[in-house]
Amino acid sequence: MESENLPVALVTGAARGIGKGVAASLLRAGWSVVLTDVDEPAGQAAAEKLARLGTVEFIPMDVTDEASVMACIERIEGDFGQLDGLVNNAGMADPDNGPIEQLSLEAWNRKLGTNLTGAFLVAKHCIPMLRETGGAIVNIASTRAVQSEAHTEAYAASKGGLVALTHALAVSLGPTIRVNAVSPGWIDTRDNAQQQSDPLRAVDHQQHAVGRVGQPRDIGALVVFLLGPAAGFVTGQNLVADGGMTRQMIYVE
Question: Which InterPro entries does this one have (predicted)?
Fold first, then answer.
């Protein structure tokens, strides 16, 4: 597939939500984008919808399956011949695992396997192409890496691990490859119909210093910056994008 000499980015877990929003932001910024997801019909539908914005291709991939990851990277090399940016976004989004006493080892491993080990596997196999282009990696972590609700141990551990993986990779892969993380707070990933039928409450927005809940495009803007040359002196960092929610003291009245 021709990318018209545009930089090429891989965005995992891009069938919906933050991943899809990040892909849209990159396309608008002039990138060619490869979307991957374990949900093939949703991923293909996302690629078809985003195609109006630029060069986009969907490749099914399961980040927990190393053979699937390797096959995807090989296809990117064959179709585009280069890779300039990686966005590790794929993950299990539901943070609630129930009481820790009832959390099975299988459920724990499944969440860490997707959210943390998956990012490791994709990064590992993208490194050769990223070295050739002097590319960059952005890992999508979470503010839950530094604060928690009850019964979210597996999710918090996976995102905290992803932040640690970020600075470890930055040191190991520099100076050729930069690696950063973005930790979103509350991002409304519902589609327009869902947002209109079940609008957020005023108090939901008031918990944020900026006065609103976040949107996928807010994360997309940060990713575009971190993957681009303007962030050439930024690596190993975790940028929090939460509208100030983790800095605003909230008291229940």
Answer: NAD(P)-bd_dom_sf, Sc_DH/Rdtase_CS, SDR_fam
